[in-house]
Amino acid sequence: MPPASPSSSSDASASKGFPDPSTGAPAGAATAVLDRPERTEAPLVLDTEPPRTLRFRDHFALWMNLGVSLIGFSTAATVLGAKGSELSLAAAVTAIVAGTVVGTAMLGVAALIGARTGAPAMANLRGLFGTRLSYVPTVLNIVQCVGWGVFELLTIAAGAQTVAHTDGYRWLFVVLAGALTTALTIWPLGSIAVLRRFVAGAVAVAMVYFTVQLGRQGVPDPGAGNWHGFLGATDAMIAVSISFVPLAADYTRHSRTPRSAFWGSFSGYTIAQVWCYVLGLMALLQSDGDPNRIFDSFLGVWAGWLFLLVLVLRETDQSFANVYSTAMSVQNLLPKVDRRVLTGGIGLLITVLALQIDEFTDTYTNFLGLIGSVFVPLLAVLAVDYFFGAGRHGWNLSADAPSRPLMVLPWVLGFAVYQFIAPTPVAGWWTDFWTSVQHALHFTPQEWTSASLFAFLVPALATWALTALARRTARS
Length: 476
Prior knowledge:
The protein has 21 helices and no strands. The longest helix has 30 residues, at 135-164. By secondary structure, the chain is mainly α. Helix 6 (89-117) runs antiparallel to helix 13 (258-286), helix 16 (316-333) packs across helix 17 (339-356) and helix 18 (362-388) runs parallel beside helix 21 (451-475). Residues 1-17 and 20-39 have low confidence and may be disordered. 52% of the residues are buried.
């Protein structure tokens, strides 16, 4: 089947329930629901037009909540560095700010594309790769989201045990967290409204309280004057921000305007993640750099348990995002299946898995990181093709969108660049392979060789070259 013309692409998109991809404007019934947003919810199946009810404040509240995480507090250790070679406090904070801004700008681009097309994240890849080829990243995203969903339930249970001062009842906390997560996914737009009206304010109060209380105790600076490892820390923060890229459009497809989707996600997530990691850094330094004792700093302040409980309960928005986006990804494969059936089944699945797993092994955590490295170059290819390539005239997002195998090449190239610079230690043979390639090319990673940035820039340039070549071929 030949590629659709700009007009036919728009018609196909609209017939499948998405707005006109060439303009980003809602089509048909979407304009009608703007007058009664309280009666709308997310579509049950993929080929139904999404209601456009989310404003800037909704996006800001959602992404502010997603930017604050119990995992973020404890992983501030990845920014600070190993004990004995810690970054200075100034260097660590600068890395947090710089990495978050760069990574969240990429997140904002993904959010913007979702707002314009009205399609979920994985369905947008139909326009980039064609429907059948889009199944490859879709399956990877399903594995990633399920893995992180399980990880979040384990984190919530551990946080609840900390607040309750008990090592028992883990199963109960997992079941309760799984049930609440699943309930949130049944009414996703309603859940986002609850986050904006009630949860965001409570989280802000808790964050302010902990910031003031920990700040009053003073923050040691064991790495005073040390900026060695600054770019590595910045790269880690970029990777954290980009982790939400394959989920962003699942929510911003409901945005009233692309502008509010971009600025709401960018500002909300940037402020929250910077705040979260800086607060985590303060708590970590007051715990002698031991990430396993980081919550002792929170519990050590007056009424700390109460405000920590707020953050533990809020963590369910992380598991909500992972479960709901898993369902959105599955709908790219099974577009006629009711999303409520999918989210119910996925919520049950991650709950059962969390009950069976005490903790993630380093191998599996690294495996999730490996999948995550897939989406840095994927975003580069997606953005360039959407704004400068085929997307300028409207992607074909229908179920029979033709395959575009040429677009796979820059994506694979970007993945190879990422692993060449910073091999993910999933297995000895994998690391050995990329290390041998480095030796063969006489390459030694330097502090300035950011895996995330180079894995974005190289496929972006390659995709731009392909689009330019395609235009010249079309003219001749």
